[in-house]
Specification:
This protein is of the alpha/beta class. The protein has a single domain, classed as Rossmann fold. The protein contains eight helices and ten strands. Strand 2 and strand 3 form a beta hairpin.
Length: 216
């Protein structure tokens, strides 16, 4: 398998600053209760100017390559807000962000900022797992009459469910790096061993079955 240089560079950054942590022997517990060998918090990248800049540049490059210049950049709350604002500033474009649900007070907005029916938009996300919450933002933008050209995310776990969800919504997903690339770089840089790789691959195929092995 060929790994893109830019994706490998980003994977290395994420590992170095501990935005992504791997621990197949002593797994993390997600909010859902599932055990996982990986924990990702891309908000950490905002604290590192060089990494933050690299991500912004890669976002802009991927957007232009895949979608051309849209009318608006939209960030998915909350992880995609800061990243999206940086991208919009770099591209000289309007920015909005999309809440997970409508506010229960005031104007009851789900989309914060100004976007008009017919405008084209690219959605910025920090992390895609199953894609469910990310695609809720796509639905909200489409309901507002916007033309969603696609989504660009920093990282994806490459879950099969996510692939199906994006396909069902007819929304193209482009990511700056991904699970396979990260594992490749993690082995190369000795963050994990070759023996760990099998376990890491098993998790991606079936998170529930992998998690169940650690529940007493």
């Amino acid at each position: 398998m060929k790994y893109e240089d830019s994706a490998l560079i980003l994977a290395q950054h994420l590992l170095q600053i501990k935005a992504v942590k791997l621990s197949p022997q002593a797994p993390f517990t997600w909010a859902s209760g599932l055990k996982s060998p990986i924990y990702c918090d891309n908000r950490v990248t905002l604290s590192y100017p060089a990494v933050r800049t690299y991500i912004r540049q890669q976002f802009v490059e991927k957007i232009i390559q895949n979608y051309g210049k849209p009318d608006v950049i939209a960030g998915v709350a909350t992880g995609g807000i800061a990243q999206g604002a940086l991208v919009a500033q770099e591209m000289g474009l309007p920015f909005v962000y999309v809440r997970s649900e409508k506010k229960t007070h005031g104007m009851q907005n789900q989309i914060e900022g100004v976007i008009n029916a017919g405008q084209s938009v690219v959605v910025i996300e920090d992390l895609v797992s199953t894609g469910k919450s990310s695609l809720m933002a796509v639905d909200a933008l489409r309901e507002a009459g916007a033309e969603v050209k696609g989504m660009v995310a920093i990282f994806t776990y490459q879950m099969e469910l996510a692939r199906k969800n994006f396909e069902e919504k007819r929304c193209e997903l482009v990511t700056l790096s991904n699970y396979e690339t990260l594992i490749h770089k993690a082995v190369e840089e000795s963050y994990v061993t070759e023996k760990d790789v099998e376990s890491l691959k098993e998790w991606r195929k079936d998170q529930q079955a992998w998690s169940d092995k650690f529940i007493e």
